[in-house]
Amino acid sequence: MNNIFMKINSIISVLEQLAPLSYQEDYDNAGLTIGNPDMEVAGCLICLDISESVIEEATAKGIKLILSHHPLIFRGLKRLTGQTMTERIAEKAIREGVAIYSMHTNLDNIFDGVNKILSDKLGLKDVSILRKMGGTLRKLVTFCPVTHADKVREAVFVAGAGNIGEYDQCSFNSKGQGTFRAGKQANPYAGEIGSLHFEPEVRIETIFPAYLQKTVISALLEAHPYEEVAYDIYRLENESNRHGAGMIGYLPAKMTELDFLVLLKDKLKIKCIRHSPLLGKMVETVAVCGGSGSFLIPDAIKHNADFFVTGDVKYHQFFDAEAKIVIADAGHFETEQFTCNLLADYLKKNFSNFAVQISETTVNPVNYF
């Protein structure tokens, strides 16, 4: 099968259905950092981190798009002089015409992201978000003639509104009477210019993800019959079951702490694990956070996890276990290594004849003796 050429923008659109950029942390720089979004590419090379060797690999394979987990550029570059590794990589990518797109904390903060695939590798069941994210939802309230209520509801539902858990097309509707008086330059749907008009209307309330606001409002305005559409947008602080940091779940069967450490080394294919003192308890509930997750230690304790698996734990943070939990530092790279497989599988599922490859270049900067 011949691979097709696609605009980078089209690929990004599908990637951001999985992990919208609005879910990234404030400090992050996910997204397209190098390249023209209108450029056509026939393949994608996936990696955790971008190095000069990764650029060289992409060039040798004729691939013009790199999809990485960690962004190449975290902070603004003031110059490109080749004095730093980041500058040299950016220069090489630009010179070779290679675009770079990154999915970092936005991929960490979704249910089917980094922590889900890590949980799956460890065999965890009944998983849920460890620290749920709030503020991801918006409520739309609008008013329309009774005769057009079905059309307006359907339009915003198709645009992505009205989903709550396993339910869709969710809304609340109440009938009332709206009033308006059309000015001289108006083109009213009903009523006469200069006269107060009473119209039977339906108040429609529904929710939608914040990142879909532009799409939902466009659909509303397109379907609504009024020349001037009245609507309100409310920010909701409800916590989302599908978005947030870390994950927690259960082993299929209880095991000793030593047996779990052996399982961890086997599943992650690692040589050693740094951990807090063992407690002599059976392990059943396990919390995880791929990459640097020590900020979630209090959450893991709060949820009565027996083990917390993450990376980049500092010396004094191991004291935070306080004989309540075992903290296992399995490594930053090691707990995120399956992210490449997650992204490759997702792209292959959505683009059957688009060349997707996982980088063969070793990028883990940490070595063990």
Topology:
Blueprint: E1 6-7, H1 8-18, E2 31-34, E3 40-41, E4 43-47, H2 52-60, E5 65-68, H3 85-96, E6 99-102, H4 105-108, H5 114-121, E7 125-134, E8 137-145, H6 149-158, E9 172-181, E10 196-209, H7 213-223, E11 231-236, E12 239-256, H8 257-268, E13 274-275, E14 282-292, H9 297-302, E15 307-311, E16 326-329, H10 332-336, H11 339-350, E17 355-358
Parallel strand pairs: 4-5, 4-17, 5-6, 14-15, 15-16
Antiparallel strand pairs: 1-3, 2-6, 7-12, 8-10, 8-11, 9-10, 12-14, 13-16
Helix pairs in contact: 6-7
Q: Can you walk me through this structure?
A:
The protein is of the alpha/beta class. It contains eleven helices and 17 strands. It has helices at 8-18, 52-60, 85-96, 105-108, 114-121, 149-158, 213-223, 257-268, 297-302, 332-336, 339-350, and strands at residues 6-7, 31-34, 40-41, 43-47, 65-68, 99-102, 125-134, 137-145, 172-181, 196-209, 231-236, 239-256, 274-275, 282-292, 307-311, 326-329, 355-358. A six-stranded mixed sheet has the order 7-12-14-15-16-13. α2 (52-60) links the parallel β4 and β5 (65-68). α6 runs antiparallel to α7 (213-223). The model has no long low-confidence stretch (mean pLDDT 96).
